[in-house]
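Here is my example:
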Amino acid sequence: MSTVYLNGDYLPMGEARISPMDRGFLFGDGIYEVVPSYDGQLVGFKPHMERMQDGLDAVEIQLQLDQEEWRTIAGELVARNGGGNLGIYFHVSRGADSQRHHAYPEGITPTTYAFAFEIPPAPVADKSAATCYTVSTAEDLRWKRCNIKSTALLGNVMHYQHGYAQGNNETILYNQDGELTEAAACNVYVIKNGIVATPLLDHQKLPGITRLMLLEILRKDGSIAVQERVVTLDELANADEVWISSSSKEIAPVTEIDGKPVADGKVGDVWLAAQTLYSAHKFDF
């Protein structure tokens, strides 16, 4: 992708520059979002940008761009980068100061950056065509504000690498009480006897936008029961189906955990029903 947005300008990626004193570079002091776009149609744009504003408010970054201005930026990036299937990355750091100091500085302007990148076509509700994932498990060792979508992602990166180094696609995390939190870059769902259970949101989990949309779609349809509650490692080990979700993966079936198959190791019927509903309604948000 050749054209990016930086602080009000559209320019070739190779010409984009930020200060080495930018706090996003020095501290990971910023907030980000990723919004998928299929042939120019954005998925979940409004809840994505509401979560971004919540994150900016939580870390006290004051920014003058509103949702419609971000939407315009997204549209420009789609158009300037050829359309098709794109992810739009939005990034706001606190900005550049004249010194490196932990306290929030006053009087600096936030750095705003966005770019487009190619993503696969939208997942389809087809068992034979589903992209299946294998995962590792690990104790969640990240900080206690995982509900903030911060650019300081080293903890997530290290957990993801744990699974990747074992030949897996993700790492499902659990806390000291043996309760699932989320995955390194996804939310998690355990399905038993046709009921979808996912961990209740708190500071240990990012409030995923795909999660939000999926639960609302399932509850509105009513054909699949949904529970938000504590979900344990034992339930993960004995599940009929396990899913992970993110904006780019949508609802992804997990067929193997720590080298052991989930149930019969095949894509389940509940996944098929849920992905069918999600595919039909994801542009409603």
Q: What stands out?
A: Residues 127-284 form a domain with the D-amino Acid Aminotransferase; Chain A, domain 2 fold (CATH 3.20.10.10). Residues 27 and 129 are 41 Å apart (CA to CA). The chain has seven helices and 15 strands.
